[in-house]
Write a structure and sequence with these properties.
Helix content: over 70%
Order of helices and strands: HHHHH
Shape: elongated
CATH architecture of one domain: Up-down Bundle
Number of strands: 0
Radius of gyration: 22 Å
Strand content: under 5%
Oligomer: single chain
CATH superfamily of one domain: AhpD-like
CATH class of one domain: Mainly Alpha
Length: about 120
């Protein structure tokens, strides 16, 4: 493939993003700094949460950026891997929980077929 699906982040792309929308970029940066600052949760914990969320949203940029930020905040490799396993469980848990939709649909389709046979 000549053109990657996810281009490497670069100063050129960052400059273009800033040039095209400087005010939203500044607002986003301020928001991000406020969100990840120490508060009721320490910055390290917030970054571990971000690593887990990045894995559930499957954003490669977020995975790399928040993994690095977590390490800079003092997270260990084991803590990061545990956060990833939490994300995996949540993702699998969501698939399991949402199976109720398929089960309910199967029950409805079966009931409609049974009614069709009984009426026919």
């Amino acid at each position: 493939m000549d053109h990657p699906m996810y281009p490497q982040s670069s100063h050129e792309l960052h400059a273009l993003r800033r040039e095209l929308a400087p005010e939203p970029l500044a607002a986003f940066r301020a928001f991000s700094q406020a969100v990840f600052a120490d508060g009721a949760l320490p910055a390290k914990t917030k970054q571990l949460i971000a690593v887990a969320v990045a894995h559930t949203t499957q954003c490669p940029y977020c995975i790399r950026g928040h993994t690095e930020a977590a390490m800079k905040s003092g997270a260990t490799e084991k803590e990061i891997m545990e956060a990833i396993w939490v994300a995996a469980e949540m993702r699998a848990g969501a698939a399991y929980a949402h199976s109720n939709l398929a089960l309910d649909t199967m029950r409805s389709v079966a009931a409609a077929k049974a009614e069709g046979r009984a009426a026919g």
